[in-house]
Write a structure and sequence with these properties.
Elements (H helix, E strand, L loop, with lengths): L1 H9 L3 E4 L10 E4 L4
Parallel strand pairs: 1-2
Amino acid sequence: ERQTFMIEDSQARVLLTHSQMSLTTAAQRVDLDGL
């Protein structure tokens, strides 16, 4: 919940993460382990 708030508050457009992370944001998600 805190991570989602920080991402939304920063108005990030792209989120670099891992597929195991469960986040719901408006930012476009790029899973690094899927590249």
